[in-house]
Amino acid sequence: MLNLSPSAKKRALGLLFFIMLMDVVGISILFPVSAYIVRRYSPDALMVSMLTVLYAAAQFFGAPVLGKLGDRLGRRPVLLASIFGSAIGYLIFGIGGALWILFLSRLIDGFTGGNMSTASAYIADVSSPEERAKNFTLGGLAWGVGLVLGPALGAVFGQINLAAPAFIAAGLSLASLALGFFWLPESLPVEQRERAPIRLGDLNPLVAIGGMARRPGLGLILVVLCLFNFAFSGMGSIETLFMIQRFAAQPWQVGLRLTLIGLVLILVQATLIPWMVSRYNERQMAVMAFLLQALGVLLIFLNPFFLLFYLITILTSISSGFIFPTLTTLTSNSVASNEQGQLMGVTTALTSLVNIIGPLWAGLVYDHVMPGAPYWMGAIIYGLAAFLLILPGRQTALSKND
Prior knowledge:
The chain is 81% helix and 0% strand. The protein starts with 5 loop residues before the first helix and ends with a helix. The protein is globular, with a radius of gyration of 21 Å. It is mainly alpha-helical. The longest helix is centred in the middle third of the chain and has 30 residues, at 218-247. The chain has 16 helices and no strands. The protein has a single domain, classed as MFS general substrate transporter like domains (Growth Hormone, Chain: A).
C-alpha cells in the first residue's frame, strides 16, 4: 500500500472520483441519442445493439492487457492513456459519417476502456484492507451521480444537435486527462511493481482469467461476480420493454425510474455502506445483498401495479449498491499489490463478456418462455450466488469442528 498523508490521500481519492464521474457521465450522456444517430445509417435494431456488443468485446480483449501494463508501468500512465482513448472514441462518434465509423469509435473506446478498472486498482493501492470496502464505494457513487447527470445532459443537448452529447463527452474526457496529468500522483511505487516480462500469453484474456481463477478462494468470487453481472445486465436489457408491455409505461416514467436508481445509489454509497462496513464483513454484506436482490426481482415478476415498481426499484437499487463494492473488496483482498491492475482488468473483461451473453439470454427467455422469465430466473441466479458466498464460511466452520 502506498503511504500517503491523510490529506494527500483525500485529495487523490477526490480527484479519482471526479475522473470516474466524468467517465460515467460520458458513457450515459449518449444513452438518449445513440439510437437516433445509428438510424441515420441503418433502421435495424441490431445495429443499435452492436454499439454495446462491440464496446464490450473490445473491452474483453483490452482490459487484461491494460491491467497488466498498470502493474508494470504504474496506474497513472495507463489511466491517462485510457482517458485519452475515450476522448478519441467520443470525437469519432460525434463526427460520424458512416455506420462503420460509429463502430470504430466504440471499438477504440472499448479497447482503451480501462478507466474504471485502473481507478479501482488505484483505490486498492492507496487503501488498507479495512478501508477498501468504504473507498470502493467511490465507483458506485460515481455511477449514481453519473446516471442522474448523464442522461439529463444527453437529452437536453441532443435536442439542440444529436452529435453534441458525444462532443461534450469528449470534452469531459479531455478535462479529466488534464486534471490527472497535472495533479494525480502515481499510486504504485516502483519497488512494488510487477517485474516479470510480458509474455505473449499475457495478451490472451483467457490466459489471464484462468490464472486469476486458480488463485485460492478467488475463483469462487469471480464466479459469483459473473453470475451477478449476467443476471443484472440481462434484466437491465429488457426492463424498459417489460415496463411498456406489462404496465404501458411512458418514456417519462422510464426516465423517472432511472433517476430514482441514481439517487438511491448515491444514498447507499455515501451513507449506508460506510455505516455497515464497521458492523459486518464484506462477505456477510454481499450475502444479504444478494438475498435482497433475489427478493426484489421476484417481486417485480409478481408485481400487479405500476406504482409498486418504484418501491421495488428502491429495494433492488439498495441491494445492488452493496454488491458492487463488497465483491470488489473481496477480489482485491485476494491478490498482492503488484497484481491489482491485472485483477481489475480480468474482472472488467469477465464483466464485458457476460454483458454480451446476459442480454442474449434475457431476450431469448423473454420471447420464448414468458416476459417475466428473466426475473424469476434471475432470482434463482442471485440465490445461487448467495449460496456460493456462504460456502467458504461453512467449510471453515466444519474444519474447526473437526
